[in-house]
Structures are given as structure tokens and as C-alpha cells.
Design goal:
Elements (H helix, E strand, L loop, with lengths): L23 H9 L3 H23 L2 H18 L9 H23 L23 H15 L4 H12 L4 H8 L3 H34 L1
Helix pairs in contact: 1-2, 2-3, 2-4, 2-6, 3-4, 4-7, 6-8, 7-8
Length: 214
């Protein structure tokens, strides 16, 4: 079962600029000059992508919304110190990932997570109409996320960023603060663990269906 079977959950890290469209750096410089409308433009450009990064890790709509809001608040407070030698989205995604991991750790300490109750993918109200067979696709996505939640944190993070958000290993390395080789190794192990867990899940499902037929 390839986890990348939900393409609508995979925003691109950056898109080609349209003619006349400003670069991230130009917008940030206007923000630093006190132009609040420039910051609103920055939020509009990256809000959806940041949300999907958070959702890929948290599998909960409300938690992902809260993390995204917190991330942009931190960006706003620190934007005057932005390092123009790095990509803005790398910096933003790093903040989102760190906040998401903090949430995961707090939840793990506070209560035992019921993996079968992970959040459903959001309704397509903001993304357009659902494709044909949407119910089955949403159920598959729910099962994928349930399995993903079983992975150790460091493997879950790189797999969510790669398979659900479509980021390259090089981009992920910058976000999580690891080397490219380390990210590739973690991704390899994450896929291995995911495959093993998915097969165990299918085996349990097959046994339940067999028992129901008896």
C-alpha cells in the first residue's frame, strides 16, 4: 500500500512565480518595513501548505489549525531577524514541524491516543468537490494515517513530509535539522516499518472478515 496514494494531501514546497508576482524575499522585506498587508500576503501564500504539513503529522484538523496559527504568530514575531540565506518555506515548515511534535508529545503524556479515532481528512469545502469514490478514498486515507501514527516520531516526521507533503529529502533535511543521508535512511526505515504495520493491519482485517463468515 503506497502511502502516497492521497495526492490531494501533498502541497508543493514552492511553485513557479506568475509574471509580476513578488518573491518571498521581496514580501518579507516589505513586512520588515512595517507593511502589514505584506504579511497578510505571506500568510495567504503559505497558510495552506503549512496547514497540510501540520495535518500530515497530527491527523487532526483542529490541532493542525492551531499549530498553523501559532506558527505564523511566531513568524510574525521573528520576521525582523529572518535570514535571507535560507528559504522562507524551510524556516516556516521547521516551525510547524517543531510545534506539531510538541503537540504529539504533550498528547502522548496526557493520555493514550486511540489510533482508530485519528481525524478524517478535511471535507473538500476549501479544496473543491470530492472526487468520485471519495468515501472509499477518505477511509483509505484514515487507515493510512492510523498506521502512520504508530511509527516512531523521527520516522513519522520524515515520511509525512515526504509522502504526504511531497517534499524532497534535501528539503526535509533543512526542516528537521539533519543531514541528507540521515533523512534518506530514516525514510527508508519509515517505509519499511509502515509496510510491516500495514500488512499486520490487513492481516487482522482479513481474520475479522473470516471470523464474521463463520
Amino acid at each position: 500500500m503506497p502511502i502516497a496514494s492521497s495526492p490531494r494531501l501533498r502541497p508543493r514546497a514552492e511553485s513557479p512565480l506568475a509574471p509580476g508576482e513578488r518573491t518571498d524575499g521581496e514580501i518579507i522585506r516589505d513586512c520588515q518595513a512595517g507593511d502589514e498587508s505584506a504579511f497578510a500576503e505571506l500568510v495567504e501564500r503559505f497558510h495552506g501548505r503549512a496547514y497540510w504539513v501540520a495535518y500530515g503529522l497530527l491527523s487532526d484538523q483542529e490541532e493542525a489549525k492551531d499549530v498553523t496559527q501559532d506558527a505564523f504568530l511566531r513568524v510574525y514575531r521573528a520576521l525582523d531577524r529572518f535570514d535571507f540565506n535560507q528559504n522562507f518555506y524551510t524556516w516556516l515548515y521547521r516551525i510547524v514541524v517543531n510545534l506539531s511534535i510538541d503537540r504529539i508529545r504533550k498528547v502522548s503524556k496526557a493520555r493514550s491516543v486511540a489510533l482508530d479515532d485519528v481525524g478524517e481528512p478535511p471535507a473538500d469545502g476549501e479544496l473543491g468537490s470530492a472526487p468520485d469514490g471519495g468515501l472509499e478514498q477518505r477511509e483509505t486515507a484514515r487507515e493510512v494515517r492510523a498506521v502512520l501514527q504508530r511509527l516512531p516520531e523521527k520516522y513519522r516526521t520524515v515520511m509525512a513530509l515526504r509522502e504526504l507533503n511531497g517534499l524532497s529529502c534535501k528539503e526535509i533535511a533543512g526542516i528537521v535539522g539533519s543531514s541528507h543521508a540521515t533523512v534518506r535512511w530514516r525514510l527508508h526505515m519509515a517505509r519499511k516499518y509502515f509496510k510491516e504495520e500495514w500488512e499486520r493491519r490487513e492481516s487482522r482485517s482479513d481474520r475479522r472478515e473470516f471470523d464474521d463468515e463463520l
